[in-house]
Amino acid sequence: MSRGPGVVVVTGSSSGIGAEAAVQLGEHGWTVCLLARRPDELLAVAERVRAAQESSGSTGATVHTYPVDLTDDADVARVVGLVLDDHPRVDVLVNNAGRSIRRPIRESIDRVHDYERTMAVNYLGAVRLTLGLLPRFLEQGQGHVVFSSTMSTQLPIPLFSAYLGSKAALESFARSLLAEHGHHGVTTTTVYFPMVRTQMSGATSIYSAMPMMDAHRAGRWLVKGAVDQPTRVTSLGGAMSEAGMSVLPGVLTKVITPGIRRMDKRLARRARRMP
Ligand SMILES: NC(=O)c1ccc[n+]([C@@H]2O[C@H](COP(=O)([O-])OP(=O)(O)OC[C@H]3O[C@@H](n4cnc5c(N)ncnc54)[C@H](OP(=O)(O)O)[C@@H]3O)[C@@H](O)[C@H]2O)c1
User: Fold this and answer.
1) Whether the predicted pLDDT of 61 surpasses 90
2) Residue with CA closest to ligand 1 atom 34
3) Do 29 and 55 contact (CB within 8 A), yes or no?
4) 7-273 sits in which CATH class?
5) In a 10 Å sphere around its CB, with 0-12 CB exposed, 13-18 middle and 19+ buried, how is residue 195 labelled?
6) In the chain, domain spans
7) Which of 83, 110, 199, 249 has the greatest number of C-beta atoms within 10 Å?
8) pLDDT tens, 192-246?
9) At what angle do helices 39-55 and 16-27 cross, to 10 degrees?
């Protein structure tokens, strides 16, 4: 199904993929609600969205900023109230805010808080906001929720256990939401991004030497989720890996993980040579 422009809420839109998606949705004539913690960055993205809305000649589309910490129950309840008061109809929620942690499990023995922190934003933040908007979606008889996940849940990837656990939980929530409310008009898209050049991936120095998708192109994947509303947006490699893992998980893990370790070593050597 393809949706014409309406009202979209995009979390994690102060930078990276979420900011690019918000601007592109503005170009398509959507009214855009920007959510993240940093108010100044949200205002800067709002300016870009407004310019995109104006240059595409869309009439009536507006842009709104809602600074919020998605790990804070009361703060999310406050912002849900504001969004619902400001917009009689909300068509799409894009749960894109996230944080990543790259650390071996052996170095996480005294760091359960790593697992709590990733769950707090990536899983519970998205669940909080979805639950806040769900009554409105059900009242409308329509609502679509897009979830930003990662290709790394489709493959056996080492060093990201806290991050990937939270994304796997998020994917499972998306499946449950669709199973329980798809027939009430509440649908979902899960987006499985490959590596994307943003502040998040930039936090790991070896990734400076890795070819990656740019944030503008990744933003188009979220737009596809919001507009075309397929159940899944993924790469061919991601879909094939997922199929392979469901049939031969042990064999694929043995084959793939040494390759990833070798790639990390190569990237580290290349990153050291970079200016
Ligand atoms: N980059 C990649 O390689 C990659 C690959 C696969 C999946 N993804 C996923 O894509 C999504 C976007 O990531 P990105 O790469 O664009 O990274 P990014 O630029 O670091 O964006 C992360 C966004 O999340 C927001 N955020 C973080 N904690 C928050 C909190 N407690 N409350 C509200 N907002 C919060 C940040 O805004 P504030 O700091 O202003 O709050 C920021 O807008 C994430 O879900 C990520 O897991 C990224």
Assistant:
1) yes
2) 36
3) no
4) alpha beta
5) middle
6) 7-273
7) 83
8) 999 999 999 999 989 998 999 999 999 999 999 999 999 999 999 999 999 999 9
9) 30
Q: Which two tokens stand for residue 106?
A: 């052996």
Within 13 A of 105's CA, how many CA atoms are on the CB side? 5
Q: Which residues, in sequence order, are CB contacts of 171 under 8 Å at separation 6+? A: 147, 149, 153, 190
- The residues, ordered by sequence, that sit 6+ positions from 146 with a Cβ below 8 Å of its Cβ are 92, 93, 94, 95, 96, 188, 189, 190, 191, 222, 225, 226
Q: What letter represents residue 68's amino acid?
A: V
Q: What is the rounded average pLDDT of the residues 55-74? A: 96
Query: Given this model, what pLDDT does residue 1 score?
Result: 63
Q: Can you tell me the distance from the alpha carbon of 171 to that of 232, in angstroms, rounded to the nearest whole number?
A: 10
> Is the Cβ atom of 90 under 6 angstroms away from ligand 1?
no
97 within 8 A of 121, measured Cβ to Cβ? yes
- Interval between CA 119 and ligand 1 midpoint (Å): 13
